[in-house]
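I have been asked to look over a protein record a colleague put together. Alongside the sequence sits a line of tokens, each denoting a local backbone shape. Please read both lines and tell me whether the tokens look consistent with the sequence. I do not need a full report, just your reasoning and any doubts. I have pasted the whole thing underneath without changing anything.
>
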Amino acid sequence: MIEFCSVTHAYGDRAVLSDLSFRLTERRVAILGGNGSGKSTLARLLNGLLVPTGGSVTVDGLDTRTDGRAVRRKVGFVFQNPDVQIVLPTVEEDVAFGLKARKIPKEEIARRVTAALDRHGLARYRHQPAHQMSGGEKQLLAIAGVLVLEPDHVVFDEPTTLLDLRNRRRVIETIRALPQKAVVVTHDLDMVMDFDRVLVLEDGRVVADAPPAVAVPAYVERLS
């Protein structure tokens, strides 16, 4: 479970999030909001990439402020732009990067990398330069690099924004098939209609918190 307790966050004098309190227990949760609503900041608070300036964020009882490393083992994060997440030259090396950092045995690394590449349709690119792949392939590679670490929760920040229709579908299918709990920050309203819960942010506050059939129309109405 991820819990926000009276969370506020500011960049200098600029308040971005104000007094957020909620628990995320559902399998699929979407975060919606316009530009500047605070949703990307909220996403980074979920795994300790940021710590709140006020209040607390806990993941399965671990406080992101004091247990950041343990939290990041539990919560994987997929960035909107995969280029910031791909760090090694080849596809195989990049998927293995996090496993090596955790000092997983070589045989286990090989097994998990092969399984991840097969699962995400990337096996044929195994030895190819990662940064020469298409945008959709890079996004799948970034996802594979996170999921190979077997986190309990996965946060996706705008995972379909830069993708064409085919790769958008592939990413959506990947998220739907995940055994882990997922929190997805997105503008893609169609994607979230089968989610369990949707939170709508506006000016750093939650203005709607409901199933998609209720929250999505409320979000659209606020935009009109």
The mean pLDDT is 95. The chain has seven helices and ten strands. The helical segments are 39-45, 68-74, 91-101, 106-119, 135-147, 165-177, 212-223.
